[in-house]
């Protein structure tokens, strides 16, 4: 629900396949002990709290500005 709201706020629409990949990225992050993960997929970047399985931030890469991500302890490309 939280992820859906974040995506809606930023006018990001994901296919079912992309949602599965995002979940897989969150799972891989959690398995590696990452708590706040950057998950990069296609033209999107997501900050995911793996402990709560929550998307904190979702954005299109072209809108990232300086491309700086803080307060993460790992990254996954899916």
Description:
- This protein is of the alpha+beta class.
- The chain is built from 2 helices and 4 strands; from the N terminus they run H-H-E-E-E-E.
- The protein is 31% helix and 29% strand.
- The radius of gyration is 11 Å and the shape is globular.
How is the biggest beta sheet arranged?
A: 4 strands, mixed
Number of strands: 4
Query: What is the H/E order?
Result: HHEEEE
- What would the average pLDDT be, to the nearest integer? 88
Radius of gyration: 11 Å
Read across the widest sheet, the strand sequence of neighbours is 3-2-1-4
Task: Give me the secondary-structure category.
Answer: alpha+beta
**Poorly predicted tracts of residues:** none
Strand content: 25-35%
Task: Provide a quick synopsis of the model.
This protein is an alpha+beta fold and 78 residues long. The chain has 2 helices and 4 strands. A 4-stranded mixed β-sheet has the order 3-2-1-4.
